[in-house]
Each structure stands twice: as structure tokens, then as C-alpha cells.
């Protein structure tokens, strides 16, 4: 793979593989969504809200995560609100910001729908995916750097994370907030990868 044609062919093969995996999983999720009278985008939004931290549950963050427009995501959020899957809550510090919080029904549906059943069945068959996941983590980091889109990582790999010190809880220097376990576990719109240490 030393020539431009080799790079092109290899990247096309990789794209085709990733696209096929995404199609297989999305097809299954689309069926799940349709059984609950939702679109795939609406079901995916519920999953994002289950995974994100409290600073990142806004329509704008949802739109950025899925690479869609704010208007399209606002429509998705409105339908989910009408269906009783989420509720909108105003931000305590900034009146222009609205948070989308899962209701009990929305949370239950998100938990039961992800991961897709086919992936769960693979795990039951004891397929070892640990090496694949490590490779994919590195691959995703590198691809994200090329696209320059937001990283949506978690606190422990973020340059704004200030770990617990002298008995004080961890802090976020962007939001000027104390971080509880749930905040740290959720993916975050403002995450910025910490630079790798020089050797
Ligand atoms: S430390 Fe980083 S990832 Fe954590 S809440 Fe702050 S900006 Fe988000």
C-alpha cells in the first residue's frame, strides 16, 4: 500500500466495511424504533441523552453529535417531548439554554434498545472484542482529529478536568463546576483531548 492508488483502495475497503457494520446495526435499531412508533433518529437521540453528561443534553449538542442541523434536531426533540420520552428544562445559569432530560419512559426505552440484540448475542457467544475496541478507540481518535469535529469524550481524558486534590472533589474549568461520578462518566460536548505526554 505504498502508492496513491493503494491508499485509495485501502481506504475504500475500510469505508465499505465500516459502512456495512453501521448499516447492519442501524437496520436492527430502525426495527426497534418502528415497534415503538419512533424514527431511528428519535431512538438514537434517546440513547445519546442516556450517555451524555448534564452539560451536554441540549438540542445543539445532539445536533453536533449526529452531524445534523439544529433545526432538524429541534424537531426530533419536540416529537420526543410530545411522546413523553423527554422533558425540557431551562438552564439555571443561562436562560437561552434548554436541557433535554429523559423521562422514566424515555430512559427505560433507551436502556432496553441499546446495544442492539445482535451485538449482545455475539457477547453471549463469548466473542472477544477487547482488542478490536482498543483499535477502534485509537482509530476514532485519529479520524476525529482529521475531521476536526468535537471529540465527545469523557472527563478523565479532558484537558479541562481537574482531579480531586486535598480532599476536594474533581472540578471542570470550563463549566466552573464540581464533577460527580455521573458527570465524569457521561460524554461531553466541551471535551477537549488532553495532549499526549512528551517522552
Ligand atoms: S472536564 Fe471536560 S469532559 Fe468533563 S465536564 Fe468539563 S469540559 Fe466536559
Describe this structure in words.
The structure is a single chain. With 199 residues, this protein is mainly α. The chain has two domains: 121 residues, Winged helix-like DNA-binding domain superfamily/Winged helix DNA-binding domain (Arc Repressor Mutant, subunit A); 36 residues, no CATH class. The chain is built from eight helices and five strands. The strands form two sheets. It has a three-stranded antiparallel beta sheet, with no helix packed on it. The chain has a two-stranded antiparallel ribbon with strand order 1-2. Strand 3 and strand 4 form a beta hairpin. Helix 2 packs across helix 4, helix 2 packs across helix 5 and helix 3 packs across helix 4. The radius of gyration is 19 Å and the shape is globular. The site of iron/sulfur cluster (SF4) has 13 residues, from loops.
In short:
The protein contains eight helices and five strands, in the order H-H-H-H-E-E-H-H-H-E-E-E-H.
Name the features.
199 residues; mainly alpha; Arc Repressor Mutant, subunit A; 2 domains; 8 helices
Overall mean confidence score, pLDDT:
94
Rounded Rg: 19 Å
Work out the strand percent: 5-15%
What hetero molecules are bound to the protein chains?
Answer: iron/sulfur cluster
Low-confidence segments, given as residue ranges, are none
The CATH superfamily of the largest domain appears as Winged helix-like DNA-binding domain superfamily/Winged helix DNA-binding domain
The helix content is 40-55%
Through-space gap between termini = 30 Å
Question: Biggest sheet, open or closed, and with what strands and sense?
Answer: 3 strands, antiparallel
Shape: globular
Q: What is the domain tally?
A: 2
What are the secondary-structure elements, in order, as H or E? Answer: HHHHEEHHHEEEH
Count the helices. How many? 8
* Helix/strand class: mainly alpha
The CATH topology of the largest domain turns out to be Arc Repressor Mutant, subunit A
Q: What CATH architecture of the largest domain do you see?
A: Orthogonal Bundle
Query: Under the CATH scheme, which class of the largest domain?
Result: Mainly Alpha
